[in-house]
Design a protein that fits this description.
Layout: E1 13-14, H1 16-19, E2 25-27, E3 31-33, H2 35-42, H3 65-75, E4 91-94, E5 108-111, H4 113-121, E6 125-128, E7 134-137, E8 143-146
Antiparallel strand pairs: 1-2, 2-3, 4-5, 6-7, 7-8
The chain binds zinc ion.
Zinc ion binds near residues 78, 83, 112, 114 and 115.
């Protein structure tokens, strides 16, 4: 019988230090994993560094693949308070709608479809600071800050 080789692909996000057993890793869809586990998963794995995007506004609404990857790695999850939907299953939202708001990391964040709709249609306001911090204001005026 023919055999089929399969290969698992696991994305783990770490700092370079974590690969030398000096910091935790983050497993999308699961959460933080201990240093030793991150280092063990890295053994024999393909390591790819995510580049910091150039500090320039990209033309157009849709972020480039590089910029989208950076935003997903920065955010890890949906940016709505307490939502842990993995970034790779989120939309990339322009906090200030394009074209008034630029296609730039300081104006982009991950939102799951549910929270994207909540923002668009249910009166939640979000304000994003240059470092990426997002402050949400609910329709009743409650303020929540979220890194
Ligand atoms: Zn969400």
């Amino acid at each position: 019988a023919p055999t089929v080789a399969t290969r698992a692909v696991i994305h783990v996000i770490t700092t370079p230090e974590a690969l030398d057993s000096q910091g935790p890793g983050f497993l999308p869809g699961y959460g933080q994993i201990p240093t030793e586990q991150a280092a063990r998963l890295a053994e024999g794995a393909t390591i790819r560094q995510v580049a910091l995007p150039a500090d320039a506004v990209e033309p157009g609404y849709r972020p480039s693949a590089k910029l989208a990857e950076f935003v997903r790695c920065r955010d890890l999850t949906c940016r709505f308070p307490d939502c842990d939907r993995p970034a790779e299953r989120c939309d990339i939202d322009h906090t200030v709608p394009y074209p008034a708001g630029p296609t730039h990391p300081s104006n982009l964040k991950c939102l799951c479809r549910f929270h994207h709709l909540l923002k668009t249609f249910h009166g939640w306001l979000d304000h994003q600071f240059p470092d990426g911090t997002v402050v949400w204001t609910s329709p009743t005026g409650t303020v929540e800050s979220m890194h």
